[in-house]
Prior knowledge:
The protein is of the alpha+beta class. 22% of the residues lie in helices and 25% in strands.
Amino acid sequence: MIRFLKPILILFIFVSLSQTVLAQNVNPATVDVSKLSDAQIQKVVDEMNKKGLGIEEAIMMARAKGASETQIAEMRRRIEALKWTSRGDSTQLKKLDEEAELESLNELSPKTELDEEIKKDLTKIFGFHFFNSEKLTFAPSVDVPVSDSYTLGIGDELVVNIYGASQQIYNLQVQSNGSVYITDLGPVQLAGLTFSKAQYKIKNRLMSIYSGLRGDKPNTFVDVSVGQLKAVKVNVIGEVNVPGTYTLPATASAFNALYLAGGPNEKGSFRQIDVLRDGNVISTIDVYAYLVDGKTLDNIQLRDQDVIMVRPYLNRVKVAGEFKRDGWFEAKKDESLADMFRYAGGFSENAYTHRVELYRNNTRTMTFKDVAAQDFGSTILMNGDSIVAGLVIDRFENKVSLEGAVYRPGNYEMTEGLMLSQLIDRAEGAKEEAYMDRGVIIRKKKDYTFESLSFSLRDVLNGKTDIALKKNDKIQISSIFDMREAQTVEIVGEVQFPGTYAYAENLKLADLIYMAGGFLEQAEVSAVEVSRILDKKEIESLTNRLSHSFQFPVDRQLKMADEDAAFVIKPFDKIYVRRAPGYRPQAVVKVQGEVAYAGDFGLTFKGEKISDVIKRAGGVTPEAFVEGASLRRKHEMSDAEYEAKLALAKQDTTMNEIDIKRITYQVVGIDLVKIFKKPGGVDDLQLQDGDQLLIPEKMQTVKVSGAVLSPVALTFKEKKSLRKYIRSSGGFAQSAKKSKVYVLYANGTAESTRGSIFGRRYPKVKPGCEIIVPEKPEVDKTAQAGKWLGITSAVVSMFTAISIAIK
């Protein structure tokens, strides 16, 4: 945010207005202090403490901005009264009387806000940000010692301390006649003298009444220091953001005043800022000298009634492109491109420095100049010039690259007369696996098309031949592995680490099984199969043969017959270790509920039935509800099914990947009563791995749900019909589909309502079942009405046609 000077914390401007008002200009003379509330006065005090502003300093600035003595006296009285009525913060009240530094004057002066677009353009002017930075302040300090060159004026105070044989302290103030009055000595004229000359004059005059000050060995001494300094009023005029009269400490400099005035505006000069005293220019400030070189020689100390004049700029040029700084810069008369480059910080690291583009306004049309490096210092700038520096071309003049089977591949400097053998030596030679029969050089021709040059690496290394290199050559030296397909072998099946392995010469079958971690327990080791692709001679003619197959018995200790052990694996062979035919993975079923020994049971033979497992579980308990026994069967997706589901979920935003479960369970309806009556019969199902058999305890309730008025669980009663259970649940709802009522039994089976010539026959109700009343599907009444309207229209049309035909 551009820090244009805000309302000056002039005591009267902070009148408890909202924070938005603080950014407006308020005339202190229009504020009626007597009508301000205590809360508003407290806000003034809080802001003074926050900004580190003493009451006397604030009053001094208020007076400078037009506040009357009556207003000032009233405000001082209100603040003093607030001290006595305040209930606590003594530290805060103490701050009202302390003299603090004017560190935040930049926040306390009448700056105004500019339009966002104007601010954006102003920040491009070099130097503008300097006077409007939130992190940089030139607020004057009141606590710095004065220099010997400080000129005394009316209102300044001096403290004269006599010590030694005689002791005395004089507090002297320069009166309106320009003199101070010393007791027993009279007036001493000091106004207009520098501080060092005033010290000398006071000492000389005091010698007339203190004889101990004279001689080579004085016994009395004098020290002269500055007490309270007068405030100075300075006028800042011309092309500044906020021109006006500013009251500053006597130690303030020209930069202090410029900073409070917001610095030069968009038309103001940063190179010619005059300080006038008594109508004469005593100093001309060039802000660039400070910003670029850090020089502050022209930043003189101000005096009362000094005038700072910011004149309009003369020449402003635009700098763009590959410079460290870009934007608008101001040029003095006879300054050149070289001077402007220095202000812009010089070229960037990617700049083309041999020439720049200069666009010039010749008051009628635009002209273009191509300025070479040797003319930078002699090309004088004019108002409106635009300078552009381009990028260096992304091309190398002295580079070659070497890639492939060498120890140090990469880019190398192209030196005069560089030969291919020398480049390979720089790369510390070719690797052992380098392909010796051929290498390739890709070279750019003059028209920047490419050509290929081949060479024998063996002949180059032996010195039989050599090639002179050129800039931008790319040399490729391949390895023997680059020149052939990657050779691998694969082993699958019943080994610990099936997969693909790198081929090695003289690799035996037992070696590969060893590398794969050996056989698993279920492996069939009597017939390990090796599948081999056709060799190069075989693929030269078209036949029906696809591959070769070999089978070998391999001991679990990887011992083989001598003839079989000599069999050598070839590249791309695939080895199959199959599962033994008699191996069966262990199958486990879970029996839960009312049995003697609930838990997991391993299936002992293929085709073991429900009755067999329940018998092994000790049979059912007396509390078992045999009619409600159910079976849950595990279903596990294959890898392909699971991946397909996940892919579908990623495409469909309504599906959640987390909800996709690989293992699910499906309820299988069983009738355990029939199974117990006829074990091994049709109803006695064979169990599978993962099955869960649940035998609940006796149930005494019936649940009614769906389209009834009051879904509820009811006590089971013998011979109570389904319709009575529904009446006990409040009866059918209006949306109930009565003809589709069905019962879901505890064992997972269901039975629906059946129609007959005698009416509906509802299913029998058993303990633990659930009566479900489905709802009628919703019907679009608008579509239904349109349908009937269409039928009616067709019928009317038909009868009309018939009547016409009869006539």
